[in-house]
Amino acid sequence: MKAVTWQGPRKVSVETVPDPVIEKPNDAVVEITSTAICGSDLHLYEVLGPFMRPGDIVGHEPMGRVVEAGPDTDLKVGDRVVVPFQIACGDCFYCNQGLQTQCETTQVTEQGSGAKLFGYSEVYGAVPGGQAEYLRVPHADYGPIKVGDELPDHRYLFLSDVLPTAWQAVAYAQRKQGDSIAVIGLGPIGQFAARIAKHQGMTVYAIEPEAERRDMAARHGILVFDNTDDSVAAIKDATAGRGPDAVIDAVGMEAHGDMQSAVAKFAQRSAQFLPDKLSQPVMDKFGMDRLAALYTAVDLVRRGGTISLSGVYGGQASPLPMLTLFDKQIQLTMGQANVRNWVDKILPLVEDPADPLGVDDFVTHRLPLDEAPGAYEMFQKKEDGCIKVVLEPK
Q: Do 106 and 136 sit in the same domain of this protein?
C-alpha cells in the first residue's frame, strides 16, 4: 500500500509499504477513504524529529470502511467507521473515568507517556498512522466509531480528533451560557473551539494573525482580532476591563511572538540535528516550548478565570509566569482529548442537517495521498489560505 512517511525534519514522502494485517483477535483493518493533516502533525514535521525514525507512517485523523475484522470485535466487513487518534481499551480504570488518553492497557510506560496514539512518534508507541491506504486498528472492540452511509466523509471525519479536542477545550474552560471566552489561534482546533463555545451561548473573541482564518471564524459569529497588543486591549475593553472569563490556547509549542519563543525555536531546531543518543535526552530534559500564546492567555484572562490548553506542548524546561498565575488566581486545565468521552454529545450535531458547527465550512483543500508532501509544506507555511487539508487515498 501507499503511505505518508516521515523522512526527516520538514520532509515527508509517500512510499510503498507492507499492507497491515490482523495481529490480535480484537484488531481490525480499515481501508481509508479520508485522512486529514492535523496541526499537531506539524510538530512531528518541525520539532519532534528526535522521537521519529525514517519510514514512520504518520497521521491520526482517518476514517474508512472495515475490510477485515478480528473475532473479538463487533465490526463486520463494510462497516463505515471513524478511528479516534488514541488507542484505548475501554475497560481499565482510566477509560472508565472518561480518560481514554491515559488508558492503562496501552500506556507507553517505557516513555512515561499516556495511551498509544496513531502515527505519533515513539513517545506514543510508534504505532503506524492513518495517512495511508489501509490501517490496522488495535482494540477495535472499543475504539472505532460506527457511522451511517448517508452523509459525506467530512461530516464525520473530524470526530477522530479535531471536534473532540475542541469540545474538550471548551468543556475544560468551565464556562456557561452568557460567559465570555477568548480563543488564541484559529487553526483547525481554534476554529471549532470558537464555534462550539458560540453554539453553547458564550460571547467568543479570537486572536489570529492570518486574515483567511479570521474571515472563516467571522462567518460563524466569532469576534476576531489580529495578533497585536491592541487586540488584547480591545478584548479587555469589551469585557469591562477585566478580560474574558476563560481563554483557550489553541496554538501550543510553536507559537511566535516574543524573545523567549525565538530562543525556544532555536533550541527546538538545534536538538533535531544532534545524534539520536543526544537529541532525545535534550528534548526530554531541556526542551523548551515557544510560549507566546500562553503568555498572551495569562495576560488576557480575567482574575479568577480559566486557561484551557488544547495546543500541544512538549517542553520540560519551559518557563512559566508562576507569580502572575498565582496572583491572578488562574486555573490551568489541559490534556489530550478523550475522544470517546465526547462523541455522544458531538455526533448529533455533525448529523444535524442545519450543520450548527459549520462542518461544511472547514475543509480548504482536498488532495490525493500522493500530494501529501506539498500539502504539509503548504499547511506549515499557511499558504493558499490553507486551514484544513483532507487527503483521499482513493
A: yes
